[in-house]
C-alpha cells in the first residue's frame, strides 16, 4: 500500500487511487464498495467471495462474479445448503469460478451452517461489529487504511466460533469495507462526499 491521496478519475472527480486501474474497479468503487449491505443471502455472497479472493486480487473475483452467482444458485443460503456431492464435483470443474477445493468446500459448509440460523441472524451479527463512525476519521492516504482492526478480529473469531470457515481477520475487514460497516473511502473521494445522499439504502437480498 503506497502513501497516495485521491486522484482524478476519467470524469475528473476525485477517487481512491485503487479504483482507477480498470473500468470495472471504477464502477465497483462508485456503485458498490462501502455502501451498506443488508440481508442474509447478500452477506453470505460477500462472505463467500471475500473468502475466494484470499490470496488473489479482487478484480479476479469481480470479473468472475456472474459465474460465481450462476454456479452457487445466486448465493441463496437454503439452495446452496442443499447442494449434493454431484454439485460439488460440478463446481470443482466449473471454469466460471475459482476452482479451489478448500474454498468451495468452505462455501458449501458455511451455507449448511447458516441454513440453521434464524432469518436476519447473520445480518444482525455482522452489523453488530460496525464501529462508531464518529470514532473513525476519514483516511487521508492509502497508508491510513488498516488491513485488520480489533472489530474485524472479533468478528472473525465470532463467526468461526459459530462454525463458519475461511473467514480470518483480514477477510473479515475486507467484508466490513465492502459492505459499508466502515467507510474507508479516502478524504475528498467523491464516494465519501456523497455518502449522505447516494450511499444510503444499500443492497438487500435479491428477490
The rounded Rg comes to 17 Å
**Shape from CA axes?**
globular
Number of strands: 2
Task: Describe the main β-sheet briefly.
Answer: 2 strands, antiparallel
The residue fraction in helices comes out at 40-55%
Structural class: mainly alpha
% residues in beta strands? under 5%
In DSSP terms, counting alpha (H) and pi (I) runs of 4 or more, how many helices?
A: 10
> Uncertain spans, ≥5 residues at pLDDT below 50?
194-207
Write the H/E string, N to C. EEHHHHHHHHHH
**End-to-end CA span:** 38 Å
Mean pLDDT: 92
Largest sheet, spatial ordering of strands: 1-2
Structural features, described:
- This protein has 10 helices and 2 strands, in the order ββαααααααααα.
- It is 47% helix and 2% strand.
- By secondary structure, the chain is an all-alpha fold.
- β1 and β2 form a beta hairpin.
- Strands 1-2 form a two-stranded antiparallel ribbon.
- It is globular and about 50 Å long.
Amino acid at each position: 500500500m503506497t502513501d497516495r491521496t485521491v486522484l482524478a478519475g476519467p470524469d475528473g472527480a476525485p477517487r481512491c487511487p485503487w479504483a482507477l486501474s480498470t473500468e470495472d474497479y471504477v464502477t465497483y468503487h462508485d456503485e458498490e464498495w462501502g455502501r451498506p449491505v443488508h440481508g442474509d443471502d447478500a452477506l453470505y455472497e460477500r462472505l463467500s467471495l471475500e473468502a475466494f479472493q484470499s490470496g488473489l486480487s479482487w478484480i479476479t473475483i469481480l470479473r468472475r462474479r456472474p459465474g460465481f452467482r450462476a454456479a452457487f444458485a445466486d448465493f441463496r443460503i437454503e439452495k446452496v445448503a442443499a447442494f449434493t456431492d454431484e454439485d460439488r464435483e460440478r463446481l470443482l470443474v466449473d471454469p466460471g469460478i475459482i476452482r479451489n477445493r478448500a474454498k468451495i468446500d468452505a462455501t458449501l459448509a458455511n451455507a449448511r451452517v447458516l441454513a440453521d440460523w434464524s432469518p436476519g441472524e447473520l445480518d444482525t451479527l455482522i452489523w453488530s461489529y460496525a464501529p462508531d463512525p464518529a470514532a473513525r476519521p476519514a483516511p487521508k492516504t492509502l497508508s491510513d487504511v488498516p488491513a485488520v482492526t480489533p472489530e474485524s478480529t472479533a468478528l472473525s473469531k465470532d463467526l468461526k466460533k459459530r462454525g463458519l470457515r475461511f473467514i480470518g481477520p483480514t477477510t473479515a475487514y475486507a467484508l466490513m469495507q465492502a459492505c459499508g460497516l466502515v467507510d474507508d473511502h479516502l478524504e475528498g473521494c467523491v464516494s465519501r462526499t456523497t455518502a449522505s445522499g447516494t450511499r444510503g439504502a444499500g443492497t438487500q437480498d435479491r428477490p
